[in-house]
Amino acid sequence: MGRACTRQRDFFRCYTELGKRRAACKYCGVTMCDDIGRMLGHLAKEYPTDILGPRGSQKCEKTPPEVAACIQKIVNDRVCEKNKKKKRKNEDSCDEQDNKRLKAMEDELRREEGTPTISQSLQGAQKAKCDEAVGKFFYENGIPFNVARSESYHELVECLQTAPPNYRGPKSEMLRTKLLREAKVLCARDLTEAGLLRTKAIDEKEDEEGKDSYVVLGRALCSDGWTSTTRRPLLNVIVVTSRGAIFVKGIDTSGHTKSWQYQRDCLSEAIDEVGEDNVTALFVDGGVPKKTRHAIEEKYPSLFVLLCGAHSIDLLLEDFYKQEKWVQKVVDKAKTITKFIRMHHKTLAMFRELSHLELLRPGETRFGSNFICLERLLKVREALEDLVTSRGWRAWVKRQKKKAKRDDAKDVKAVIRSRTFWKNASLLVKISKPFVVAMKMADGDVPAMGKFYQCLADAIRALESCKELGEERRARLAALAHERWKYLEHPLHAFGHAVDPEHQLGDWHTDSEVDEAISHVLDRFYGENSDEAAHAERQLEQYRKREGRFAKPACIKNAELMSGWSWWAKYGGECPELQLVAMSVLSLVCGACSCERNWSSYDFIHTKRRNRLSASKCADLVYVYSNLRLLRRMKNKGGAECFYAWKDPDASKRARLWVPNNVRASKAILDSNHACEDSSEEGEDEEEEEELDEELSSIVVLGTDDDDEEDEEEEDEQMATQMVGDESDSESRESSGYE
User: Fold this and answer.
1) CA 1/CA 580 separation, integer angstroms
2) What percent of the chain shows pLDDT beyond 90?
3) Mean pLDDT of 163-181
4) Are strands 304-307 and 281-284 parallel, antiparallel or unpaired?
């Protein structure tokens, strides 16, 4: 009976406690449990069972009136209390419904007015907290801000939203072992599905499974050496196709003698891994001995071994510098101007106020960059002359305390105001620019085997026709160019020129050199004395004379709008033997510069702070990094292909060897006059030089359907940065063959 309240203690006296939660009425002797409701119901006259529950016992007839009145008052109080609770409950439920309706109306009004709701405010607070954590992760670990633009970064955020609540990110040990191996396997699978990666192991696996294996055409294998941050000699292997460069593997050559036999074994191992049938050509730089190249050609009869075109032309420009004193003087003076202005922040600030173009700094790994920097000096000549004649320049020179610095400033001013220097600089740019254009063409990842032969021939022809040089200097420079061309030339260059649709009507068939190159390529591709090679030579006449399907108007028109290999794939069906060779050759690049660009990926991953990576681990990271970026670019590009546009749309209508696709450019080169005798002639020269730039810019423009043409200033800066690199990187490229 401990559940009774103080007001109920009076009616407890009416009962006798019997124990075991039983009680007996003192008036009538009825026994019952000690439940309050039952005891009140037994003594009360009126008991509302719908509110207080069932009575559960008979009514006492012997209860005194004063006791009955007291009990009835207790019952009435309990009834009132129950009614109040019920009323409050109903009111609370009504208020809750009203609040929900009001909240819905308020949310609707806030949405219309743009005011955030309570839930939105809470979400905004949570988002701010997440953003703060992401920002802290970026800042603390020194991650570049443009990483947030990466699609993989957004994929990571989306995956974290669907992760389980107790998800913990992978630890460093898992990232560097299991996850890296899995990423490499997945990357290789994606490359295979995209048709980029084709190896001997994949061919053997498909043969075992009974699948029809296919051969990837126009794949060039490139290799180059480099010294890492930790002074470890490395050799990379890259496969370049018309769709991009695929990193295959990196080889640590520490402790091995770099003999021609060792180089042969390394290259043979790479060829065997990719598969001889999946490689058309092997590109190496001048650091690979001639013995090694011949040994590779003997071991693989259908493989062509070529030198890097960009490296060879770069050596030619370096020959110009070493053999001709006037070239050396012009280049050295140009480097002095650039170095002096860039080294002093005051002079550089004054120059930037006068010109929107920057002074380019020549690099060490590409000597041809000196000629690009010289061309930029010609474009900013007026700004340089205004700089050295300004009051700010004179005041700055007077403030210098060291006599050596004042003397240097005086020498720089004398060079800038020298008409002889600018005249020689213009002449040097005139003869070197065609070679720089050819070097840019060979330096890219865009197939250029059909254009390179004619481009370099036009450069040599323009050099031989330059009357401003004088007979003696012209003969010396032409001899250097022919010697370097003989060192670089390969029958594949002439064959690519012959089967390129741009030169279809040219008179290349009358040149014995081109004719011998065609026979050599066909015999090596199909084997000597084979029926396929003989069929291909007969089909070449059908292509040259535009017979059969080659005579259709759509075929002639689309030759300019399509890449050479795509054009042969679409219209060369009547000449299957020649079609196969033409597609394989025209989809090749002209150099091994993809390997040099791959060293930038190595340098990005294997930094001075991250120098404890092993060679194999670093190679795996570069494999995943390079190839995932290639797959991403292919996905974003949407299947669009890059190719070099025709220099002259009417090129196919002319028939003259050496000048079928560059008559306008050659004419501009031969007729341009860079003499700087007076201000009026200078203005005419600058206008003529701009017209020449416009003519030559079509040589290096990629013929895509969606991309616009880049400005020549951007091309020069890209050439000076991407191809040349910083001077700091040159220290780590000692074994690349460019010393």
Assistant:
1) 106
2) 33
3) 90
4) parallel
Percent share of the chain, pLDDT over 70: 74
CB atoms within 10 A of CB 496: 28
Beta strand pairing call for 15-19 and 22-25 = antiparallel
Say whether pTM exceeds 0.85: no
Other beta carbons within 10 angstroms of residue 715's beta carbon come to 17
Q: How far apart are CA 583 and CA 588, in angstroms?
A: 9
Tell me the three state secondary structure of residue 16. strand
Q: Which residues of 289-318 are buried (b: 16+ CB within 10 A; e: fewer)?
A: beebbebbeeebeebbbbbbbbbbbbbbbb
Better-predicted residue by pLDDT, 477 or 59: 477
Six-digit token string for 714: 């951007």
DSSP state of 489: -
d(CA 21, CA 149): 77
Q: Is the pLDDT of residue 717 over 50?
A: no
Bridge partners, 430 (sequence order): none
Q: Of the given ranges (90-104, 205-219, 618-632, 692-706), which has the lowest mean pLDDT? A: 692-706
In tens, the pLDDT along 202-227 reads 666 665 655 544 445 678 999 988 88
Number of Cβ within 10 Å of residue 718's Cβ equals 13
Report CA dihedral (114, 117, 123, 124) to the nearest 10 degrees.
Answer: 40
CATH 3.30.420.40 placement within the chain? 178-308+592-637
For residue 230, what are its two tokens?
């930790």
SS3 content of the chain, % helix, strand, coil (to 5): 65, 5, 30
Q: 685: which 2 tokens?
A: 């020269």
- Tell me which amino acid residue 225 is: G
Relative orientation angle of helices 512-526 and 531-544, to the nearest 10 degrees:
140
Which residues have CB under 8 Å from 449's CB, separation 6+?
492, 493, 496, 585, 586, 587, 588, 589, 590
Q: How far is CA 701 from CA 596, 650, 696, 707, in A?
A: 22, 18, 9, 10
CA angle, residues 153, 155, 158, in degrees to nearest 5: 115
> Domain 178-308+592-637 belongs to what architecture?
2-Layer Sandwich (3.30)
SS3 74: helix
Q: Determine contact, residues 682/691, Cβ cutoff 8 Å.
A: no
Spatial contact of 34 and 17, defined as CB atoms under 8 Å apart: yes
